[in-house]
Amino acid sequence: MLAFAAVVAVIVVLPGPDMALVLQNGLAGGRRSAVETALGINAGLLVWAVAAALGIAALLHASAPAFTALKLAGAAYLVWLGLRALADAWRGSPPVAYAGKRRRARPFRQGLLSNLLNPKVALVFTTLIPQFVDAGRPALAQTLVLAAVFLCLGLVWLLSYALVVASVGEVLRRPRVRRALSAVTGAVLTALGVRLAFERR
């Protein structure tokens, strides 16, 4: 368990689309948007964890057409998010104030979709977790426990990151700083989307 937690800790703190998306939405909508994005991301992880426990993620891993279709959809979504951030940076538009039910749901939905459309998350659950499952004990129970550890560490890290982004929000939302960060996060999201599109399993 300790070895698994150590490996997961390294995975969750590595910069990637999740952190870029939390930063982008934190710039646009402040603490609430950053936290909702983090919660959406972890809701996506929860779906993948359940899919892995039920064997659904393994079926996706085994099916090349399904994996490719999901990969391309996820890549397109990341590129779209990245291009929107780049457009905001180019226009120098002020941070968006998320208001109303529909707009409040946007950060959570973006976090959720960015994970559900990323087959690499499924690969983590179908290739990493089985390495730590004891063959002499019930596999389903162990898989659920290990997935819960993964989710808890991911939730703690992303929520902490979201709160840090929010705590320095006034500095980050200064026009020049915000435009620069929007340009960086937009470029990162776009690059990650392109890389995902061309990555092999």
Please tell me about this protein's structure.
By secondary structure, this protein is an all-alpha fold. It has 9 helices and no strands. It is globular, with a radius of gyration of 17 Å. Mean pLDDT is 77; it is low at 95-102.
Proportion of helical residues: over 70%
> What is the residue-averaged pLDDT?
77
- Uncertain spans: 95-102
Query: Strand portion, in percent?
Result: under 5%
Q: Which outline best applies?
A: globular
What's the main sheet like?
A: none
Distance between the termini: 26 Å
Order of helices and strands: HHHHHHHHH
DSSP, total strands: 0
Treating each run of at least 4 consecutive H or I residues as one helix, how many helices?
9
Using only CA atoms, what is the Rg? 17 Å
Structure classification: mainly alpha
Total domains, how many?
Answer: 1
Concise description?
This protein is an all-alpha fold and 201 residues long. It has helices spanning 2-13, 17-53, 56-62, 64-91, 100-116, 119-128, 139-167, 169-172, 175-198.
Strand-helix topology:
Elements: H1 2-13, H2 17-53, H3 56-62, H4 64-91, H5 100-116, H6 119-128, H7 139-167, H8 169-172, H9 175-198
Helix pairs in contact: 1-7, 2-5, 2-6, 2-7, 2-9, 3-6, 4-9
Key features of this structure:
201 residues; 9 helices; 0% strand; globular
